[in-house]
Design a protein that fits this description.
By secondary structure, the protein is of the alpha/beta class. The protein is built from 18 helices and 21 strands. It has three domains: 238 residues, TIM Barrel (Alpha-Beta Barrel), CATH 3.20.20.60; 77 residues, M1 Pyruvate Kinase, Domain 3; 126 residues, Pyruvate kinase, C-terminal domain (Pyruvate Kinase, Chain: A, domain 1, 3-Layer(aba) Sandwich).
Length: 481
């Protein structure tokens, strides 16, 4: 299914979007990747959503990626005798391991690992940062705090510890069970929550054992500090601005977003910008001007994908939210300034033959009348390198591996086409020409660039480039290979 934009759209499924008709309508409206939030829903419910997505994929003959987002460790306070208490600025408040119901002076925080890591002066954030506590004294089973920003604290509200590296693995027991379940089910991407260090990614990769690509969510200051190592360990990144904006001063999030996007592009790994992109469309059929500008800014920055969360999972206007993202993306990418902005961000690694091939393909496409770049790829690496170049013409990723086609649905500009295995370069060129015409990218009188690796069907061998006609008769008459 051809898109009129290069940036991809990720949509979260939930109560507002779990039927066949709705999921099909969302894909037709523009969704390239469906996110399954493992924080909500039973395994049976997740299995049914997965089944429907794959049915839509078969019915429309259009590769669709599925991203399973693991919950990660959830830090929460206990319960209160009255259900909730009001804390005022300057009040003293204790967090401890006593399971007794809390009151206006204390509550249980059933996470001994937090007390082990706390230091004097550390900040604790409760209920998405609405309540801020400063640690005045602490031990192995308590933390005496002063309320810096007050509010109502109630049962089981979440706790963030922004300035402490917690001795917590990114995968809880629930996450390990969920990981095995979704990998057996057959998802394409695994998103890891609350990553702090590359070791968190290594554990998930070992458990996944090649069954899914690993995407690290950047939502803690420690992840920002360790980003280069986390990026190196991951297959992709999500800039999860929700928790990131709680744990860091809000004004720091935009420059961090821009910096992380550029680093991901530099190493040819896809990046998603997520959280509150069209938040008002949960209840409104129209977004705010600020939200539209936020979506546009992420696209100008060169992100691979933009994501809807509650807007598509529980909102009243899921299709309209997708259509809005699609329209903004089409408009931004048609801006006369867009190519120069994207080109100014270019500067990826140039270490080998494959890098040189895709760089040459982009230059040829931009300086001659070329309609598309067709790259044959087994593992997806060549398509990722081509996407890093952000060429001004469509990218057609030709692969015989359905898993590769699905994973590439997350990558900028990649139009994925399934093809049979080819043995000779002439056959590859013919297949590319047919795909370019069938997908509406080129006519018989046009030319395309074809990249491939010889020998065929061996990952990492991209070593050949040809400017080819889309007329098969000319290919057979002129190509000796």
């Amino acid at each position: 299914m051809r898109r009129l934009r290069n940036v991809k759209i990720v949509a979260t499924l939930g109560p507002a979007s779990e039927t066949y008709d709705m999921i099909r309508a969302l894909h037709e409206a523009g969704v390239d990747v469906f996110r399954l939030n493992m924080s909500h829903g039973s395994h049976d419910e997740i299995r049914e959503k997965h089944r429907i997505i794959r049915q839509v994929e078969r019915d429309l003959d259009s590769p669709i990626a599925i991203l399973a987002d693991l919950q990660g460790p959830k830090l929460r306070v206990g319960v209160f005798a009255n259900g909730a208490e009001d804390l005022a600025e300057g009040d003293s408040f204790r967090l401890d391991l006593d399971p007794a119901p809390g009151d206006a002076s204390r509550v249980c925080l059933p996470h001994p690992e937090i007390f082990e890591a706390l230091k004097l002066g550390a900040t604790l954030l409760v209920n998405d940062g609405k309540i801020r506590l400063k640690v005045e004294d602490c031990g192995e089973d308590f933390a005496d705090c002063t309320v810096i920003a007050g509010g109502t604290i109630s049962n089981r509200k979440g706790v963030n510890v922004p300035d402490v590296l917690l001795p917590l693995a990114a995968l809880s027991d629930k996450d390990r069970d969920d990981l095995e379940f979704v990998c057996t089910l057959g998802v394409d991407w695994l998103a890891l929550s609350f990553v702090q260090r590359p070791a968190d990614v290594f554990e998930a990769r070992q458990l996944a054992d090649g069954r899914a690509a690993i995407l690290a969510k950047i939502e803690k200051p420690q992840a920002v500090d360790n980003f280069d190592a986390i990026l190196d360990a991951s297959d992709g990144i999500m800039v999860a601005r929700g928790d990131l904006g709680v744990e860091l001063p809000l004004q720091q999030v935009p420059p961090i977003q821009k910096r992380l996007i550029r680093k991901c592009r530099y190493v040819a790994k896809p990046v998603i910008v997520a959280t509150q992109m069209l938040e008002s469309m949960i209840e409104s059929p129209m977004p705010t001007r600020a939200e539209v500008s936020d979506v546009a800014a992420a696209i100008y920055e060169g992100t691979d994908a933009i994501m809807l969360s509650a807007e598509s999972a529980a909102g009243q206007y899921p299709i309209e939210a997708v259509q809005t993202m699609d329209k903004v993306a089409v408009e931004v990418e048609a801006d006369v300034n867009y190519p120069s902005i994207i080109a100014a961000q270019r500067g990826g690694r140039q270490h080998g033959v494959a890098d040189a091939i895709v760089g040459a393909a982009r230059e040829i496409a931009e300086t001659t009348d070329i309609k598309a770049i067709c790259c044959f790829t087994q593992s997806g690496t060549t398509a990722l390198l081509t996407a890093r170049e952000r060429p001004g013409v469509p990218i057609i990723a030709m692969t015989s591996q359905r898993g590769t086609a699905r994973r590439l649905c997350l990558s900028w500009g990649c139009n994925c086409v399934m093809t049979g295995e080819v043995e000779r370069f002439k056959g590859a060129v013919v297949n590319a020409a047919r795909a370019a015409r069938a997908q509406g990218f080129a006519a018989e009188t046009d030319q395309i660039v074809v990249t491939a690796g010889v020998p065929f069907n061996v990952p990492g061998t991209t070593n050949i480039l040809r400017v080819a006609p889309c007329d098969e008769r000319l290919i057979y008459n002129t190509d000796p290979g």
